[in-house]
Every structure is written in structure tokens, then in C-alpha cells.
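Same chain as my last thread, 209 residues:
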Amino acid sequence: VLEPLLQHHTLRPETWGLSERGGQEVDVEAMTRAVDGRPSTRLMSLKRKKALASEAFVSLGEQPQVVVKVASRDVSRDGPVCVRLADAMAEVFQPDIGWVHAFFDNDPPLTDERSLAWWTMDQLVDGHRRGYGHSGPGGLGMVTYLGVRWAGRLGPALGRVPGVLCEPLAWGGLRVNLSEAVFDAPDDRLADQWRQAMDRVQDQQVFAK
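reply #2:
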């Protein structure tokens, strides 16, 4: 799963560790020995300080997750880079759900519908909270990957939302973009697309309420 990240020319981690502090120089053999193929409660952390600075966290428990946080100052430029990386990682990991999303750090009180929609979207880009297996993931992000488990249920409905792009992936999943140029689209347009898409799939009872 980490191979696309470790081979990436602009996002390759520099250090790793089995805590959030990391600190050891990236060594694939040492990382493999530390995991030893067994699920555990440990967290593998990988960090990069050079541009693009990033942190990656890999949960090694029974419900494995991969989270890559990129410190981008130019979402229009770096967003497509992150999507290409996510495509490669998703092909190996084949997740139930995954996201590429730019968080806008809107905090209450929220004074308009656009801000409320963005705040809600940010809160719902969440697949690793407690109870995920029971209540489902939060919701759609700017770019959402749906695995085989949910692609067939949500794909037809999302494909009927004007402007939303659904692209089938070779491994059986589906990549859903809220807009064709999702990282360049105006905030109010994306917020409207997100509301329409979420309304269209609510009756499928996939996302948490």
C-alpha cells in the first residue's frame, strides 16, 4: 500500500516510526520487519519536511487505514498530484471509501449556506472514527473513492447529479469528483454540488446520519 508513496518524486517520506513522532530514516526492510504482516494496534507514522511537506499515518489494526496529510499552499496545483497518488494507493488498498479533500477550516458560527456546507463536508470526510463499521462513513468529499462494497449502490444516483463526475476504476471501485475541475471550482459551486449529491444518495443508507 505504501509503495506508491515511497516511490513518489514529490511526496516520498523522509522518516518513519511506530509513533506520531517518527524519527528514523525511511528503510523499507526495517518497516516491513516492524509490521511482520500481523494486524496490531500500532500506528506507523511517515513524515516529510521538504516541499511538499506531508505526514502519513498507517493504522495496523483490524480495520486498517491510510491517511496522508499534505501541507499545500496551492490546492489548484497540488490537488491533482494528490489524486494521482490516491489513485495508485487505492488500486492496491482497494478501500471501502477514501477521499482527497482540501479542508477550509471554517469554524462556527457559520453565517451563510456556503460556509455551513463546507464545514459539514469537512466534518464528514471521516472514515476512521469509532463506530464506522456500524454507522457508516461520514459523507462525500471533493474527490471520493467508493470501493466495490458501495460503488454499485451509490454510483447510479451520483451519476445523475449534474456536474458530478463518476469514473469507474480498474479494480472495481469508483472515483467521484464533485466537479470536472474540482480544485479550481468556486467554493459556492462545490458546496451546491455537494448538497445535491448528498441529497441524492441519502436513501441508500450508506453514510452516517
